[in-house]
Amino acid sequence: MKTSFLLASLLVLASTRLFAQACVIESNDDDVPIRLCQQNVTIPKSLFEGSFCRPQIPNRSFEVTMTERCPTGAYGICKDSQTEGVAYQQSIHYYSDPADAPVLSAYCTQISKGIWEEP
């Protein structure tokens, strides 16, 4: 019994470590500032880096920095969010404008099926 519990614990730790990656996305143009971080939960690494961390907003430019974890200081986090039609999960940390929290919270829970947290 102890061996199976230990093995299960090690597998959980290994799988958590496998997806320990995040990307900080910051606008670098003259438009409204955007700063957020996407923390990978269940997305394969290459797909996360190649697709999920590539903002597609017309007429905007961004700097993307890969990191192990999202930085502290977010005013809101949408935990375990999902893109419609995709089973993968990520947690999105928001840093730009706390006044956006009501809209982002509603989007998180109603559209992305995530859990909104205010750290």
Distinctive features:
119 residues, alpha+beta, 6-stranded antiparallel beta sheet, 3 helices, globular, disordered N terminus
The main sheet comes to: 6 strands, antiparallel
Q: How many runs of DSSP E, i.e. beta strands? A: 6
- The end-to-end distance, rounded to whole angstroms, is 38 Å
* Radius of gyration of CA atoms, rounded to a whole number: 16 Å
Order of helices and strands: HEEHEEEHE
Strand content: 25-35%
Structural class: alpha+beta
Could you list the spans in which at least 5 consecutive residues all have pLDDT below 50? 1-18
Task: Report the total helices.
Answer: 3
Report mean pLDDT, rounded to a whole number: 86
Protein name: NADH:ubiquinone oxidoreductase
Can you offer a commentary on this structure?
The chain starts with a helix and ends with a strand. The protein has 3 helices and 6 strands. Mean pLDDT is 86; it is low at 1-18. The protein has helices at 2-18, 45-52, 101-110, and strands spanning 22-27, 35-40, 62-67, 76-81, 90-94, 115-117. Strand 1 (22-27) and strand 2 form a beta hairpin. It has one domain (20-117). It has 119 residues and is of the alpha+beta class. Helix content is 29%, strand content 27%. The protein has a 6-stranded antiparallel sheet with strand order 3-1-2-5-4-6.
Topology:
Layout: H1 2-18, E1 22-27, E2 35-40, H2 45-52, E3 62-67, E4 76-81, E5 90-94, H3 101-110, E6 115-117
